[in-house]
Amino acid sequence: MPERLFVCTPSKLGAYADCPRRYRYSYVDRPTPPKGPPWAHNSLGASVHTALKNWYALPLDRRVPGSLPTLLKATWVREGYRDVDQERVTYQQALRWLESYVATLDPQEEPLGVERVVATKTAVLAFNGRADRIDSRVGDEGAEAVIVDYKTGRSGLGADDARGSQALALYAYAAQRVFRRPCHRVELHHLPTGTVVVHEHTEESLARQVRRAEDTARDIMAAEKAVAAGADPDAEFPTNPGSLCSWCDFRKTCPAGLEAPAKEPWTSVEHLGSS
Ligand code: SF4
User: Fold this and answer.
1) Is 267 helix (H, G, I), strand (E, B) or coil?
2) Considering only CA atoms, which residue is closest to atom 2 of ligand 1?
């Protein structure tokens, strides 16, 4: 019998690569262990992403900065903030990011996809993922698709972030197949700094990322199989303690997480009040 394909998203693969134990808590253990409270930075990211998605749903004549307050208000996620004042300051900052960002966009340009799910299969994976935006551009080889991923985190981005991102590479690999056109260019758009970090993949570098994803999938399937056969789940899905633990939803469930310093749900947006 052929092996079953491993159904996955970039975040599923990324969870295991970051920490096998976190993968287990998220995708294997049922019922799912209790998570910590929602994070303000996730609320901020989701609000900005949805506002940009809805920007492209506007008719062309309404794609103007004046539409942004309504868009952002409608999509604003309130969870995780310390208080209403902090939420208000963060909202104003997010609005400024959006105003600067849309000033760089051509309102006439229609992307190939906005929050578009792309899916494809390999010998091991049944991959699907939702790309923030897939642009249609003209490159050296004619019409091509370009993967665009929005970032709202505190830290700036470097070239390695685009080059090393498995998620972006898998989106590009899948987009080539879905849209039947080349897709080698991946871009991270960091709204807080207005930085765009670009990487041009080759067929070889995309294939390399797919092989890495397949290796991760094989490791996950082997661990799941072993647990189903009676192996110790803690041994098959070990902890990977590090700086991520303080931000992990399962910090209070995980023995390694309990050792990590706790963060407030709003820690990561505190600096916005002083900028
Ligand atoms: S707290 Fe740390 S070690 Fe534990 S699951 Fe989360 S990331 Fe992994």
Assistant:
1) helix
2) 245
